[in-house]
Specification:
By secondary structure, this protein is mostly helical. Helices cover about 80% and strands about 0% of the residues. It contains 16 helices and no strands. Helix 2 runs parallel beside helix 12 and helix 10 crosses helix 11. The radius of gyration is 20 Å and the shape is globular.
C-alpha cells in the first residue's frame, strides 16, 4: 500500500515554518530565521519527527530556484544607476574580503594541505559569506528615517550588485568543482553561458514586451515566466556546468525591466513560492543541521566564523566606501548594513554541499553564523547611527 506520510510531513513543515516565521517577524527578525529553527526542531537536532525524502529534496530544489528567480525580478536596475561606481566598488570589496577571510579561516583552522581541491573548498566556504541580505537593514534604516539618504541608497545598490557578483563567483566555483574540466574549458563554458543569457535576454524581452501589451495581468504570463525560469535553470546546470540557481537568477534579471509584467509575475511567483516550495527549502536546510554532532572543534570554528563573517563585511564594504571618498561614519554604517546574511548564503551553502565542496558537518557552524549575523545587524546599525553625526 502506498504511503501518504509525506502529506502529514508537509503539513507539519508548512505550519511550523509559518508559526515560527511569524514569531521571528514579531521580534524584527527575517522569517527565514524562524523557518530554519523550525527545520532544526523537526530534524535530528530536535524531535526528529520529519524524515528527509527524495520528494522533499526535489521540492526544496524548486523552492530555491523560484526564490532566486524572484530575487532577479525584484532587482531594481534603475536604482543601481544612481550610485553606480560607488556601489560597484563597495560590492566588489564586500564580496572578496569575506571570501578571503572566511575561506582562509576554514583553510587554516582545519589545517588543510595546499592543494587545488582544498583551496576550492575554502573558496566555497568563503563564498557563502560573500552574499548580503539587506532586508533587516532596510527595516532598521526605514524605522530611523535614514532609508532615503545617500548612504541608504548607496547601501541598497551595493547589496544588489553584491548578490550579482556573488552569483558569478558561485558559477565559477561550481564550474571548477567538477574536477574534470580544465581551467580553459571552465572559463569557456561560463563565457558561453553569458552569451546564451544575452541571446535569451534579447529574444524573451521582445516576446514578453509583446505579450505585456495586452495580457500583462493574465495568469498565462506568470506561467510562461516560470517555464522560462526553469528552462534557464536547466540549461545553466546541464549545458554550461553553472549552478541552476544562477540560471534562475538571470532569468529574473531578464524580466525585471518589463514594467507591467514585472510586478504581476513577481507577485504570483512570491505567492506560489511561499505557499509551498520556499518553506520546504528552509526547513530542509534546518533538518540537515544536526546540532547534536557539534564537537568542540566545530563549536570553536562557529564562534570564529561569526566574528569573521561580521568583521569581513564591515572592513570590506567600509573600506570600499572610504575608497570612494565617503565619510568615515558613512563608511562604517554601510559596512555594518551589509553584515546580515540570509537566503542567498543558505542557497550557496546547499550548493556547496551538493557539489561535495562543503562538508555537511560544517552546516551547523554556517547556520549559527548566518543567524548571528542577522541578529547582530540591527543592534550594531542603530548604535553606529546614533553615536555618529547626522547621516547624509
Amino acid at each position: 500500500m502506498e504511503s501518504y506520510s509525506f502529506l502529514l510531513y508537509l503539513a507539519i513543515i508548512l505550519a511550523s515554518t509559518k508559526i515560527l516565521g511569524i514569531v521571528s517577524e514579531k521580534i524584527n527578525m527575517p522569517q527565514v530565521v524562524g523557518a530554519l529553527i523550525a527545520g532544526i526542531i523537526l530534524g535530528p537536532s530536535g524531535f526528529g519527527v520529519v524524515e528527509s525524502t527524495d520528494f522533499f529534496v526535489k521540492v526544496a530544489e524548486i523552492g530555491v530556484i523560484m526564490l532566486m528567480f524572484t530575487a532577479g525580478i525584484d532587482t531594481d536596475l534603475a536604482e543601481l544607476k544612481k550610485t553606480g561606481f560607488q556601489a560597484l566598488i563597495i560590492a566588489i570589496m564586500g564580496v572578496f574580503v569575506p571570501l578571503l577571510l572566511c575561506g582562509g579561516l576554514y583553510f587554516f583552522f582545519f589545517k588543510q594541505s595546499f592543494t587545488t581541491m582544498n583551496v576550492l573548498k575554502a573558496a566555497f566556504v568563503g563564498s557563502v559569506f560573500s552574499a548580503t541580505s539587506v532586508g533587516i537593514t532596510v527595516e532598521t534604516l526605514n524605522e530611523m528615517g535614514k532609508l532615503k539618504t545617500k548612504t541608504g541608497t548607496t547601501l541598497l545598490s551595493a547589496a544588489l550588485i553584491d548578490d550579482i557578483i556573488g552569483i558569478i563567483v558561485l558559477s565559477i566555483l561550481t564550474g571548477f568543482s567538477s574536477g574534470n574540466s580544465s581551467v580553459l574549458m571552465v572559463v569557456l563554458k561560463i563565457a558561453l553561458f553569458f552569451v546564451f543569457t544575452a541571446v535569451m535576454a534579447f529574444i524573451f524581452n521582445k516576446v514578453f514586451r509583446y505579450v505585456s501589451k495586452e495580457h500583462w495581468h493574465s495568469r498565462r504570463v506568470a506561467i510562461w515566466a516560470l517555464a522560462f525560469c526553469l528552462t534557464m535553470a536547466y540549461c545553466a546546470e546541464r549545458f554550461f556546468g553553472v549552478a541552476d540557481i544562477t540560471g534562475a537568477y538571470f532569468a529574473g534579471l531578464i524580466l525585471c525591466n518589463i514594467t507591467k509584467s514585472r510586478q504581476f509575475v513577481a507577485k504570483k511567483m512570491t505567492v506560489s513560492s511561499y505557499m509551498l516550495f520556499t518553506p520546504v527549502f528552509f526547513a530542509s536546510v534546518g533538518m540537515k543541521t544536526n546540532l547534536r554532532v557539534m564537537n568542540k572543534d566545530i563549536l570553536i570554528f562557529a564562534l570564529l566564523l561569526i566574528i569573521a563573517a561580521i568583521i569581513s563585511k564591515i572592513i570590506g564594504c567600509g573600506l570600499g566606501a572610504k575608497l570612494c571618498k565617503m565619510q568615515t561614519h558613512q563608511s562604517i554604517v554601510i559596512g555594518i548594513g551589509m553584515v546580515a546574511r540570509s537566503e542567498v548564503a543558505l542557497m550557496v551553502a546547499q550548493k556547496g554541499i551538493d557539489a561535495g565542496m562543503i562538508d555537511p558537518g560544517l552546516l551547523p557552524a554556517i547556520i549559527v553564523s548566518v543567524i548571528a549575523s542577522a541578529l547582530s545587524t540591527p543592534v550594531l546599525l542603530k548604535m553606529a547611527i546614533n553615536k555618529g553625526p547626522v547621516l547624509e
